[in-house]
Amino acid sequence: MFTSPAAPPRRRPLPEGTGRRVLVAAVASLVAEILIVGTGAAVRLTGSGLGCPTWPRCTADSFTTTPEMGVHGVIEFGNRLLTFALVAVAVLTLAAVWRMRKRRRDLWWPALVQLLSIPAQAVLGGITVWTGLNPWTVAAHLLISLALVVVMTVFLHRVRTGPGERVLAVPAPLAALGVAIAPVTAVVVLLGILTTGSGPHAGDAASARNGLDATVLVGVHETSAWVLFALTAALVVWSTARRLPLQRPATLLLTVEALQIAVGVTQVALDWNAGVVIVHVFLAACLTAAAANVVVHLRRPVADVFEERPERIEA
């Protein structure tokens, strides 16, 4: 069943027992996961991927950068330091949901996954350094970071909406279109990662590329981005015409896609300008979060529906 067309609901209070502390932790977690993607891109696209040539130390004799390593060492070491900020956010998030870990498993597990992912990502980052920035380990490192963006997007949504059985918030055909957004977004992002891995920015002048044809990948990636844009535009038009609660998430996603397409076209026109590519990678994380946000808004708690307008439930 689904809720019949109605004006988007007013912002509802947080579910009982959640608290603003948990909400702040959820927002901080999502923001941190997106930012770490952006800073990682900055390391690679400034040629600082091997600014610290070993791991876990920065040099064979020091955990910190040295003056001889120059700006590349500072950038790479700075990114490593950001891991500690991410650890702090993850620990605080887990602490915020600790007391509700038994009754709110939907919050406990994402918070735990975020914390446990940090040492795993650190090890993968170390392997990436040891292999001289192998493009495939770099890609895997980024994919895991984007997967964590999805996890924390779901986490934030659950904090705001609460637990319990859920029903479709939109008609089934529109829900199917919304669900299709997820795999298409995944294809767009994956093609983008492969395209970047075939381009000129290896993270270090001596590092290899993935060997794929960048010209072909640019064309395929751009085509997939326009397909995603068309699907999202249809989602916006449909949800707006029916005044469905999916309107705002879909519009946000369409806006991010428009920005991403514009930046992507610009980066190719400017011959892979590093600064523009950094923005493109950062927007990929934003795109991932916005697409996940659309999917989670396809359903809503049964209790929430009955509270607002019980007579407007249709089978």
TrEMBL record:
The keyword Phosphoprotein does not apply. Its main location: membrane. Keywords: Cell membrane, Disulfide bond, Heme biosynthesis, Iron, Membrane, Metal-binding, Oxidoreductase, Transmembrane, Transmembrane helix. It is a multi-pass membrane protein. Signal peptide: none annotated. It holds the Pfam family COX15-CtaA. It is found in: Membrane. The chain crosses the membrane at residues 21-43, 81-100, 107-130, 136-156, 168-194, 214-238, 250-270, 276-296. The keyword Cytoplasm does not apply. Pathway: Porphyrin-containing compound metabolism. PANTHER family: HEME A SYNTHASE (PTHR35457). This is Heme A synthase. It comes from Amnibacterium endophyticum.
